[in-house]
Amino acid sequence: MAGGKETPRQKMIGILYLVLLGLVALNVSDSVLDAFKNLATSLGTSTQNTQASIDNMFSAFRETKLKDEPERAKPILAKAEQASLLANNLAAHVDSLQALLTDAGGGESTSTGDLKNRGSTDISFRLMVREKRAERLRELINETREKLLEISNNEVGFSLDAQDPPPRAGIRKSWEQANFGDGIPLTAAITSLEKIKADVKNAEAAVVKHIFGEMDMAVVNLDRFAAVAVAPSSYIIQGQPYTAKVFLTAYDSKSNPEITVGGNALPVADGQGTYSVNTSSEGVYNWTGVIRVKQTDGTIKEYQTEPQTYQVARPSAVVSPDAMNVLYIGLDNPISVSAPGIPKESLAVSGQGVSVSGSGGKYVARVTQPGTARINVSARIGEQTQSLGSTEFRVKRIPKPQAKVAGRSGGAVAAAQIRGQNRIFAGLDDFEFDAKFNISRFSMLIQKPRVDPMGPYQGTNGTFSEPMQNALSSVTPGSFVFFYNIIAVGPDGLQQELDPISFRVN
Questions:
Q1: CA gap 267, 353 in Å, rounded
Q2: What are the Gliding motility-associated protein GldM N-terminal domain coordinates in residue numbering (predicted)?
Q3: How far, in Å, CA of 300 to CA of 315, rounded?
Q4: Model confidence band, residue 282 (pLDDT cutoffs 50, 70, 90)
Q5: Which of 187, 231, 345, 383 is least crowded, fewest Cβ atoms below 10 Å from its Cβ?
Q6: Distance between CA atoms of 248 and 260, rounded to whole angstroms?
Q7: What number does CATH give the domain 224-313?
Q8: Which residue has the higher pLDDT, 364 or 112?
Q9: Which residues pair with 488 in a beta bridge?
Q10: CA nearest 198: which of 340, 382, 41?
Q11: Phi, psi of 73 (to 5 degrees)
Q12: pLDDT-derived band at 313, boundaries 50, 70, 90
């Protein structure tokens, strides 16, 4: 289950849950089962607290907003209640599954406070996977997620999700197998359901809070909607007039707001102001528009446009790479295109050996094959389309990154520093782009003084496994730590082996 904003406590619980699932693959000791029981209890407490918060939000809304502005509040309350109904239906389904597993597990043991058959590794597999209950649960989770996102206009993030986990050690597992499959103790399956219920309530709380927040938004009576047209041209040929419309995307045509530029009022008609100046001299000019609108409650709301710039100049095409005369495979290469004296809106940018997207002088170029690429610029001038020139670029692959641990690529390191590490990274120093690399797998070997080597240990996703961290915590001065067989994948999708790195512990 991934995606969305979580509190630090929720993140900690989620991490602990994943750690415990990992430990299940190693052993099913009483200490691990106790940890699952404690985690389930903590999740249950968190769910109760979240439910109390949701109840308080509904109570406060009904006591204040619904009484003060019932006409506006009723549809908002109905929308929030719809979100709660979706979440409660899913939570009730999870409760029924918990009851089923609890009954199959023999009920509660007085000695452990947990299920009598808590260590059973076949009950959840039989009831949840083999009998397809986990498959139905997954469908219900994802259906609920999509409906909550739709209700909130995709403006709220939350962790309620049921996607297959990434493969571990080359083995792929479905979401159903990872949470309820063969080898999963019964108490771990119960904890999985408790976590789903916590995620449901966290999602409900986030969506309800977002919906109720709509009530506090200022209101303007909007009866017309139109696309913003700021200025038809930002580059003007000397002698041409410069004209710009200043208006809201959605506006009230029955009232004329006060619109000013530089403190001077503009003529307003149908809610729109027109700004027009002469362009007899070359140069760069800036202006900002201010719109003051009276709202339904009588208050005045002021809106300010983004700073606008236009240049009066004579007509030549300019194509300038934002980062050297090179395009890199797999990256969004920023390209600036301008033609003095010609509006940016009139420019047409195309490419050979490269795809180009964007507008307004700022474009993104993407390439797939090494070699060369050419970007062409043309413009609509009058009734004709005229070529303004082209520029050739070299196309390269992203340089091979360097592996790093503790921000370093080897050398002497303090024992305390290397002991505290838990990840290996890959990156490029002094590279013009923010190219991100993911380490898919790597190996580690430790040579301590006068003892046999420790390892090799295998890691995935750039994270040190628990055996790795245990081994690192034991290094002493004079030890050597080696990282090798480091495989990284960059934005271009190319999988490559990085140079090994080694550390001498002081």
A1: 49
A2: 32-212
A3: 44
A4: low
A5: 383
A6: 13
A7: 2.60.40.10
A8: 364
A9: 439, 496
A10: 41
A11: -75, -30
A12: low
Report the CATH number of the 318-396 domain. 2.60.40.10
Domains in the chain: boundaries: 8-216, 224-313, 318-396, 402-505
Report how far residue 41's alpha carbon sits from residue 191's, in angstroms, rounded to the nearest whole number.
Answer: 9
pLDDT at 237 over 50: no
Rounded to whole angstroms, what are the CA distances from 295 to 220, 221, 252, 292?
A: 5, 7, 10, 10
Distance set, CA 398 to CA 235, 328, 392, 487 (Å): 36, 6, 19, 15
Residue 76: other Cβ atoms inside 10 A:
18
User: Residue 55: how many CB atoms within 10 A of its CB?
Assistant: 11
Name which of 350, 342, 347, 328 is nearest 436 in CA terms: 328
Where would I find the beta strands (DSSP E) of 150-282? 224-225, 235-237, 242-246, 250-251, 258-261, 264-265, 268-269, 272-277
Q: How far is CA 495 from the centre of its chain?
A: 24
Q: What's the full length of the chain, in residues? A: 506
CA pair distance 410, 493, nearest whole angstrom: 26
Q: What is the pLDDT of residue 432?
A: 81
Amino acid present at 259: I
Using H for helix, E for strand and C for coil, what is the string for 352-404?
Answer: ECCEEEEECCEEEEECCCCEEEEEEEEEEECCEEEEEEEEEEEEECCCCCEEE
Asked if residues 279 and 204 have their Cβ atoms less than 8 Å apart, the reply is no
Q: Is 188 helix (H, G, I), strand (E, B) or coil?
A: helix
Is the peptide bond preceding residue 456 cis, with omega within 30 degrees of 0?
yes
Buried b (16+ CB within 10 A) or exposed e, 385-409: eeebeebebebeebeebbbbbeeeb
Task: Give the model confidence (pLDDT) of 127-170 as tens digits.
Answer: 999 999 999 999 999 999 999 999 999 999 898 999 998 888 78
Q: In the block, which residue shows the tokens 């008609």? A: 269
What's the CA gap between 376 and 248, in Å, rounded? Answer: 35
Q: In degrees rounded to 5, what are phi and psi of residue 443? A: -125, 155
CA 488 – CA 435 distance, rounded (Å): 12
Give the three-state DSSP class for 165.
coil
Distance from C-alpha of 190 to C-alpha of 104, rounded to nearest angstrom? 12
Question: Rounded to 5, what percent of the chain is helix, strand, coil?
Answer: 35, 30, 35
List phi, psi (to 5°) of 472: -60, -35
Nearest to 481 by CA among 489, 496, 469, 463: 469
Among 138, 235, 128, which Cα is nearest to 189's? 128
pLDDT top residue among 72 and 248:
72
Q: What is the mean pLDDT of residues 434-440?
A: 92
Q: Are 208 and 80 in contact (CB under 8 A)?
A: yes
- Residue 396: pLDDT over 70: yes
CB atoms within 10 A of CB 379: 21
